[in-house]
Design brief:
The complex is a heterodimer of chains A (436) and B (266).
Chain A lengths: L2 H6 L4 H24 L9 E10 L11 E10 L7 E16 L3 E19 L2 E8 L17 E2 L12 E2 L1 E10 L2 E10 L13 E5 L5 E12 L4 E10 L4 E8 L2 E7 L2 E13 L2 E11 L14 E13 L2 E12 L13 H11 L5 E13 L4 E10 L4 E11 L4 E12 L13 E9 L1
Parallel strand pairs in A: 10-14
Antiparallel strand pairs in A: 1-2, 1-23, 2-3, 3-4, 4-5, 5-8, 6-7, 8-9, 9-11, 11-12, 12-15, 13-14, 15-16, 16-17, 17-18, 18-19, 19-20, 20-21, 21-22, 22-23
Chain B lengths: L1 H23 L4 H10 L5 E11 L5 E12 L6 E9 L7 E5 L7 E6 L4 E5 L15 H5 L6 E11 L2 E10 L2 H7 L3 E7 L5 E7 L5 E14 L4 E11 L5 E11 L16
The chains are: A mainly beta (436), B alpha+beta (266).
Chain lengths: 436, 266
Amino acid sequence: MNTSSVLNSYKFHSPVKWWIILGVLLTGWSVYAQESSSPAPFDWGHIASARTAYWSRDKSFDDRSASWSNSFWLSLSPETIHDFKFKFESFGAVNALNRVSTGPQTDPFVEFREAYVERSFGAFDIRFGRQIIAWGRADKVNPTDVFGTRNLTFLSTDEEDQRLGVGTLQLTYNWDAVRVIGIFQPEWRFPTYPIPPISGVSLRDGRLSAFQPQGGIKLDYTSSAFDASVSFFNGINRTPDLEFKGLNGPTANIELMYRRVRTLGADIAFTQGDYGFRSELAYQQTEKGGNTDAFRQNDQLYGVFGVETTPVENLNLNVQVLGKHTFGEIYSPVGNALLVPLAEQMRFIANQTVRNLWGLTFRPSYKFWNDTAEIETALVYWSQPASGLVRPKASYAINDQLKAIVGGEIALGKESSFFGRMVRNNAVFSELRYSF
Amino acid sequence: MYGLNLKIVATGLASFVAFTAQAGTKLTPEEIAAKSFAIQKVADSTSKSRFRLINANGQERVRETEGVTKLIPGTTDNQRLVKFLSPADVKGTKTLLIEHTGKDDDIWIYLPALKKVRRLVSSDKKSSFVGTDFSYGDVIGQRPEEWSHTVVGEETVDGKKCYVMESKPKTKEIAENSGYSFRKSWIDQESFVAVKAEFKDLSDKPLKILTQSKIEKVDVKNNKWQPMQLMAKNLQTGHSTVIEFYDYKANVGVDAKQFVSSALEK
């Protein structure tokens, strides 16, 4: 899958139509609210920002791919109307790219992250529409984040902005400290990964219609002692398998196949004195079963255990140990020698290179000048083969509206490793953000 | 008749003696500290506030919040929900703080960018409250029983007759947790609000001056008072913060369901 196919999935015509429809609806709500209630101006609850960012490399594995990314973000949380709450969040971006493969080009796109309506009926809350569901109490690495869909090629100085909203019906039952959350997600949106080009291989998304019924249930508990949840998910795995679709001359056609999985998850967070603890565990059962297809992911048990503390004022340290156990045959035989490198890519994509894999995350952050400035470094390390990703970032709020951000995204490791594959995308970035 | 008048006079005298005895009863330093701690604890409240953060060069940043509080029934422990209204980059951020006497408080934060609630470590009371010159301990109040208090005199501040009280943390741990080794406070004898307080850091150097003004009686029945303007000035950095409360309402029947972490996501 190349970046142009990614961009094609954000064609203008459909989003623009929805912008217009939503604009009309929101205007209607505003007029209705103003006519029917107090003379106070209608509160749209808006947050907007205009951002201009420079990346020394985009995420296309192109050796000359410096990019300017200009975007406008808008979030609306209008005041409640007849007990209905609305949320809308979208951004439009124009990336000015300059790649070896394509030369200078401009790629505009629009993303609708969230557009939902919410209402409470006694102990029940219902939320319907496109929304972002972020599960998991661990720090940034979340094995139970099963509904999380991301565009990891989107050039963003904040990785949380890479999350994509998906059409979902969420029903929550609140019973004191316990919540039961049921999720039905009929919409399917392809996640996007930076996958390095493989010689002689054409890679594209497999066929999967936009209607893919998925569901999950979570039992969530919160108390003074601890917060915890157990969850179950039956839906599409956000990490793809690879499938050989035949040869087209010397080129092998490979599709990214998103298959169904079932995931049983649990998480917990609690504090003890000066320390906060977060842990998350997920068992993922794939459709692979007993077969030995080298291009399918295996079942796995994936856990995170972390601790955070503030040893001196404003300095926060967060350390997590990651562990993954892969079940079944990892190095299944591959009949066609041409496909051997592809089988290796499959293991890297799934990060199932050895039976027992461990890793580490470390995230120190320091705020100063009364929280107007912050420096942070996020480090992720995976063993066997050793590789890592370092993401240093510094930000300074020049005033209440204007913020400057500089940082980098640096992958380390051999080319045949989880993060080592990304070395060609190593980049520094800077951004100026005006919020209002 | 004469006997009746004598009885009235005697009763009146007794009442007068009782009244003067009560008025003359000297409160102990511990009682003054306890009254000062409890004086702002209304059953529940709603308010908006404007934070002005002013650096040594006079540059000003403004943050606006709305907050609700509710006492946990039968305790002096408060539950506080704060929602940020501005500036835009923190708008929608919510914090929930639940105090617990005798153990660590609970703090959760909802960050709109993360789309989820995080539980935070709460043992550290010396950290800045959202970048202001107030610490978390300043906001929730230092527990009086954890400090030793001495009344060293009486002075008039802004026309208010005040007890002047010096306080020291009872243990090293309490000192490290609060960030203070010493506090001198001027406590208004009418409202028991500390109209001024000076703090020293753990190296015994002057650290901060806190003033509270525009004091209003917000609950007549239960004799509760609230300063509508607070100022903290950091003497070491020159930075200061002014917090102004407006639309403050006490005892309005705040819904207890707001004070659960899951409500932050709504």
